[in-house]
Amino acid sequence: MNEIALSIHWIKFKNWSYKMPQLLILPSVIGMERVRIMKAKLAIILALLIVASSCSFSGDSNGSLGKSDNVTQAPAAAVEQSSEQQTTKHAVPKVGASAQVESPTIESCLVIAPMLELAISEAEAGVRTVIMTSNLSVKARQEGISLARERLQLTEAIFDLFEMEAADFRLDEKIKPYLNAIPGYRERLHECYAKLDRLAHLDALQTGSFKDSRDGKTYKSARIGNQTWMAENLNYETGSGSWCYDDSKSNCNIYGRLYDWETARKACPPGWHLPSDSEWTQLTIYLGDENVAGGKLKATTLWNSPNTAADNSSGFSALPGGARDNDGSFVNIGYIGVWWSSNEYYTNYLWLRSLSYSGGDILRRATASKAYGFSVRCIKD
């Protein structure tokens, strides 16, 4: 390996390492201990990489590093003292004119190889944590994305270095499986970068807020295509025809209220209205189609695992508020979100939109009862 390249990667690692405690994985989210563990693991990866891959220097046939003809030889004691000072001052030895660089060995490659999967797994864990904390402030999110990218770049450098070291041993049966795995690791890296790009897109959205003049509550909003949507579920108390899940006010504060259809038609604030079926369809088409729009609408938190495909790249921040059945029971909070439209499909049949924790699509379906309790998202007039 090139000595300069090795030094550059080491410097990059040191700079990244010092930033680790500030990683978008905030201490309040996962605890400082988790940060230390992740930092230690990656430090081990790169330390082993450097030890195994660093250049090994041998002198000339006389055991000397070589010397220039026009340099007067200093006394032995002075040379020894100078050598000690230089060794202390420089982490990487200077190479004389006649120094030889030894080739990498299979053993050094096999020290690095098992670390490849750990490196990509830790990088993916970092991206997942960024997504989980994406509802924090814009500043915290941007810093998190930046540091996550640095982690991905470090992981990519580890792959590059391994491929360089193992280039001469491609046909070796011990090395071949690791080299064959690299393209798959790079695909996983590419997906991590894509997730961060989608998350960064949130800051480019036209987001805002407004106050409901009726009760003073403030709601977030998001401009998606040519439409402006509430970026939270409505939580306006109507007296009748609306409920908190499990009759718990704390659920209303998080997920909004559940409304029957007649109440939902009149519940939106002045200047806003219950979206029609065609307005829901317009939103879905803008985000791709029914198969992919759900993931772009779903918030990255509060949904039960696996929360398939959720990246909230639209800024809509859909939440799994569950539903209220005709018999008054509450069901499926954390698993589904269901929203009314203003249109009847047939006599007493109404169009809905629903999202699930286990899918990235958005379902357009009809219900035969106006008495169910579902969530409400209002759209601007």
Q: How does this model look, in words?
A:
The protein is built from twelve helices and 14 strands. By secondary structure, the protein is of the alpha+beta class. A three-stranded antiparallel β-sheet has the order 3-4-5, with no helix packed on it. The protein has a three-stranded antiparallel β-sheet with strand order 11-12-13. A two-stranded antiparallel sheet has the order 1-2. The longest helix is centred in the middle third of the chain and has 28 residues, at 138-165. The chain is elongated and about 75 Å long. The model is unreliable at 1-34 and 50-101 (pLDDT under 50).
Short description:
The chain is of the alpha+beta class. Helices cover 43% and strands 15% of the residues.
Strand content: 5-15%
Strand order within the widest sheet? 3-4-5
Shape, principal axes of CA atoms: elongated
| CA distance, first residue to last residue | 63 Å
Mean pLDDT: 76
Structural class: alpha+beta
The number of helical segments is 12
Number of strands: 14
User: Which range best describes the helical content: under 10%, 10-25%, 25-40%, 40-55%, 55-70% or over 70%?
Assistant: 40-55%
**Compute the gyration radius: what is it?**
30 Å
Q: Multimeric state of these chains?
A: single chain
Encode the helix/strand succession as letters: HHHEHEHHHHEEEEHEHEHHEEEEEE
